[in-house]
Design a protein that fits this description.
The protein has 101 residues and is of the alpha+beta class. It contains 4 helices and 5 strands; from the N terminus they run αβββαβααβ. The chain has a 5-stranded mixed barrel.
């Protein structure tokens, strides 16, 4: 288990869009998996692949309603460099989310 996955921090963001589907393989041509691509107003782009499957990707994406604020759990290290990854257009990994009440 990587460090960020076991050391998460909450971040609140407004969802612009969310789409589930098959993701590309890695830089070495590995097989892709399924993921949810999330675009937010304040926090940039996220990618949730942890425990996302072919059967759940679209359902998870549908839970993220545009215009609503969610608390996303992202890795502690990823949070430290969030401003940089936003500027570079690199999506941060998300491990879970909850709609703000």
């Amino acid at each position: 288990m990587d460090y960020d996955q076991s050391h998460t921090v909450p971040i609140e963001c407004t969802v612009v869009s969310a789409d589930g589907g098959k993701s590309r393989g890695g830089p070495r041509g590995g097989a892709g998996g399924y993921a949810v691509s999330i675009s937010t107003k304040e926090c940039g782009d996220f990618r949730m692949s942890w425990q996302v499957t072919e059967d759940t990707a679209d359902d998870i994406a549908a839970e993220l309603e545009p215009g609503n604020i969610y608390t996303f759990q992202i890795g502690e290290n990823q949070n430290k460099i969030l401003n940089l990854t936003q500027k570079l257009g690199i999506g941060s990994a998300v491990y879970s989310f909850e709609k703000k009440k």
